[in-house]
């Protein structure tokens, strides 16, 4: 809503219901007020977004009175805005809806004439046609529930039962080979540990032998009677 573009709210008004639209323009963006709030000191009306970014640039400074104090927009202004009706922003794509000010936001989020991109071929498509397209688009990736291999939908016919079974066999062989390798690694690890323990035991035994030799060679007077 920041510029007066082709799609601006002002350009899309279809029904004014006698409301004087010029009184409902934002001083900052000069477009129709969107979610307006007001300055309590000068009664200036601004789109919430417009005054928010304005105040980031010059804090506390109202565009009109230089002394900004926020208050809620008067019910009168809200009522005036509510009388206006608009063409949907997606009218150029074929949306026929004429929507009231307060319902506009919600409609344009849900509008079926919004352009979206196919996740496969990236073509722009109307939101309401996207699901149907994506259910048929050849560039969408599919994943086989049997073998977990993924392929483009357009290549689905080459993933035959035969191909799938061969892939499952290949995976099974690979898994078996991995399992076997893990088992071998574990056996090797345990064997190494066992060897180390044997060495430790031998070292201990040797030390015991040495100590008992030393004990025998001690003078008699240190031995107990
Ligand atoms: Zn504005
Ligand atoms: Zn002010
Ligand atoms: Zn629409
Ligand atoms: Zn597609
Ligand atoms: Zn498969």
TrEMBL record:
The keyword Coiled coil applies. The keyword Metal-binding applies. It holds the Pfam family zf-C3HC4. Residues 26-66 form the RING-type domain. One of its GO terms (molecular function) is zinc ion binding. Keywords: Coiled coil, Metal-binding, Zinc, Zinc-finger. InterPro entries: Znf_C3HC4_RING-type, Znf_RING, Znf_RING/FYVE/PHD. Residues 180-221 form a coiled coil. PROSITE patterns: ZF_RING_2. This is RING-type domain-containing protein. It comes from Adineta steineri.
